Automatic annotation (TrEMBL):
Membrane topology of this protein: Multi-pass membrane protein
Primary location recorded for the protein, binned into one broad class: membrane
Protein name: Large-conductance mechanosensitive channel
Organism this protein belongs to: Zestomonas insulae
Record lineage: Bacteria, Pseudomonadati, Pseudomonadota, Gammaproteobacteria, Pseudomonadales
Pfam families referenced in this protein's UniProt entry, alphabetically: MscL
Gene that encodes the chain: mscL
Amino acid sequence: MSVLSEFKAFAVKGNVVDMAVGIIIGAAFGKIVSSFVGDVIMPPIGLLIGGVDFSDLAVTLKAAEGDVPAVVLAYGKFIQTCLDFIIVAFAIFLGVKAINKLKREEAAEPTLPPTPTPEETLLTEIRDLLKNQQQNRLP
């Protein structure tokens, strides 16, 4: 088997295609979540904590000299990224929790047993009649 045919067999396997679709949808979902966090969640939080934008917090380790840029320890961006992660993780947790609740409610609904078809009912009656006839013949 040539390398090209092996690669073709690998690339068209269902799980590889599913994974690729998941990655593409995940990237698109990442943009939605980033917008949700940055545009919807963070403004009220910033208002609650006095308008502090963590991403601007930094310590200059070495000032700029001529064409050489300053060396800056941007710890605020790290704090902001951690806060974004916590918010995203919590939002995903709430979403998964809601989905699991819906699944539990769906599973809790009692399902009625299927009613037998007319043919099945007729066959059951015939079976019962034959059983009764055999029992009546026994001494």
